[in-house]
Each structure stands twice: as structure tokens, then as C-alpha cells.
Amino acid sequence: MTSLEQLAALPAQLQELSQRMLQMEWRLLAYVESVNDEVDTHEALKITGIKSRDTLIKERDRPGSLIKYSKHGRSVSYSRKSCIDYKLSRRLNQYSPAPMRLIS
User: Fold this and answer.
1) How confident is the model over 74-98, as pLDDT tens digits?
2) Number of H helices, E strands in the chain
3) Is the pTM of this model over 0.85?
4) 13: helix, coil or strand?
């Protein structure tokens, strides 16, 4: 059993935890922005999980694609952050798993 003092301390602990989570989120966003460099096609394939260069080209040219790229003459470079965003967007239930329903 929990004591009344422990129950009374829960709102303050929750507030502290919420503040710490916000700080972690800010740090993570700052880190992601700091590593947003450009990568070559080989590295973009590894990050996105796409297997072939042709598929990567089709995906980057698709309207509304998350993959950002730039051309420098004949060479192409990709935004590391956009490749990571693409990979995360392809995962099922990445942020909140759907609640399971029990059929009786």
C-alpha cells in the first residue's frame, strides 16, 4: 500500500518528469539539426533502407516525398535528416502502438 504522503508527492514528481522530458526533447532536436549534413547516394541507401538506387531515385522524385536532395552537376547529395525522417515514416506504429482489442 502507498502512504498518503507518497500520493501527495505524485503531482510534483510528475511535473518534474514532464520538465525533464521537455529538456530531453530540446536536446534531441538540437542534436538532429547539428548532424543534418549531406550524404552521398550509397549512404542514403543505407539510412533509408531502400535497396536499389533506382528505387531511391523514384522515391525522391515522388510528389510529397520526405527525401530532400540537391544536385551538384552530375553528383547528387541527400539530407541525412530527411533520410532518417523517411525511414521513420515507413515504420508501422512507430510512436504509439495501437491498443489491442480483445474479442470475447
Assistant:
1) 999 999 989 988 998 987 655 554 4
2) 4, 3
3) no
4) helix
